[in-house]
């Protein structure tokens, strides 16, 4: 679409981790769908280059917001933008990092940095977004989780735990905000061809090619899922019934997850104290 005839605006989307990979593709595709943009990442030059290209292609207004979301003060600045800018109707909570290798022998400082970005920053921005959107009467929060949240046994280290947190946070928000004006989506990518692997010290070429999805395909599937009303989107999953069955199995446990006495199989009877 030419810059002279942009589509009607759907509000402004704030995308974190927008300078490369999944975040960059989200920015491009959201602009083509009619969103103005606020692009958040550490690399100012990459953001400026992307903003110029998107504006030239789509005619949309693109604001760049350099920020290091591993730093509390930068997170607070982005959160304030979500609260103070009534034009923002969508947050794509995408920024994240991974650590290389298993926990045994890992550098604790690297794990702490990952937690700051994947958990603390994401939560702070999610909280700001859902409160702002609730007050405005509309808005959408997209949290980028990962399929490793569902199979942490297959991925060493603490990364899978951070993505399980993202999924659990979204599930909790879905229940809390049910019936309200805020839409939610958790996107669970599988292996994706991005710079994530280089930054985590992993060799992408060592991974099976048939398991690696292009970020363009991933984001397009995620956006189509959002437009179709999906709350939980696993772009690689052939049949959504698999997710439905997993959810049903979890909820079947709910009535027995908390009782006043231990289960009979532990043989404690009515003994108190032990």
Average pLDDT score: 91
The CATH topology is given as Rossmann fold
Question: What is the N-to-C succession of helices and strands?
Answer: EHEHEHEHEHEHHEH
Helix content estimate: 40-55%
Please describe the biggest sheet, giving its number of strands, its sense, and whether it closes into a barrel. Answer: 7 strands, parallel
CATH class: Alpha Beta
Q: What is the CATH superfamily classification? A: NAD(P)-binding Rossmann-like Domain
Bulk shape: globular
- Domain unit count: 1
Number of DSSP E strands: 7
* End-to-end distance: 73 Å
Q: Strands across the major sheet, in which order?
A: 3-2-1-4-5-6-7
Quickly give the structural class: alpha/beta
Total of helices: 8
**Residue ranges: pLDDT <50 for 5 or more in a row?**
1-7
Cα-atom Rg, whole angstroms? Answer: 20 Å
**Percentage beta strand:** 5-15%
Per CATH, which architecture?
3-Layer(aba) Sandwich
Organism: Ancylobacter amanitiformis
Protein name: Short-subunit dehydrogenase
Pfam family, one: adh_short
InterPro entries: NAD(P)-bd_dom_sf, SDR_fam
Task: Provide structural commentary.
The longest helix has 29 residues, at about 110-135. Helix 5 (about 160-175) links the parallel strand 5 and strand 6 (about 180-185). Strands 3-2-1-4-5-6-7 form a 7-stranded parallel sheet, with helices on both faces. The protein has one domain (about 10-245): Rossmann fold (3-Layer(aba) Sandwich), CATH 3.40.50. The protein is of the alpha/beta class. Mean pLDDT is about 90; it is low at about 1-5. It contains 8 helices and 7 strands; from the N terminus they run βαβαβαβαβαβααβα.
């Amino acid at each position: 679409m030419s810059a002279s005839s942009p589509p009607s605006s759907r509000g402004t989307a704030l995308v974190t981790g927008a300078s490369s990979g999944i975040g960059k593709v989200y920015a491009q595709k959201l602009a083509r769908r009619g969103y103005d943009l606020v692009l958040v990442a550490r690399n100012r030059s990459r953001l400026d280059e992307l903003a110029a290209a998107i504006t030239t292609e789509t005619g949309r207004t693109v604001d760049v917001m350099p920020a290091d979301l591993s730093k509390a003060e930068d997170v607070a600045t982005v959160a304030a933008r979500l609260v103070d800018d009534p034009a923002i109707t969508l947050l794509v909570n995408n920024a994240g990092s991974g650590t290389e290798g298993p926990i045994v022998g890992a550098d604790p400082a690297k794990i702490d940095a990952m937690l700051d970005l994947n958990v603390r920053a994401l939560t702070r921005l999610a909280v700001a977004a859902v409160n702002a959107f609730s007050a405005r009467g509309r808005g959408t929060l997209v949290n980028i989780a990962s399929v490793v949240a569902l199979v942490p046994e297959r991925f060493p280290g603490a990364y899978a735990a951070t993505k399980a947190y993202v999924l659990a946070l979204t599930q909790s928000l879905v229940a809390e905000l049910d019936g309200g004006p805020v839409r939610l989506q958790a996107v669970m990518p599988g292996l994706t061809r991005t710079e994530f692997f280089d930054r985590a010290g992993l060799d992408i070429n060592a991974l099976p090619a048939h398991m690696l999805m292009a970020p363009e395909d991933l984001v397009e599937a995620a956006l189509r899922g959002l437009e179709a009303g999906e709350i939980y989107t696993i772009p690689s999953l052939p049949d959504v019934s698999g997710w439905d069955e997993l959810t049903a199995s979890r909820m079947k446990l709910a009535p027995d997850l908390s009782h006043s006495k231990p289960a009979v199989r532990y043989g404690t009877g009515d003994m108190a104290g032990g």
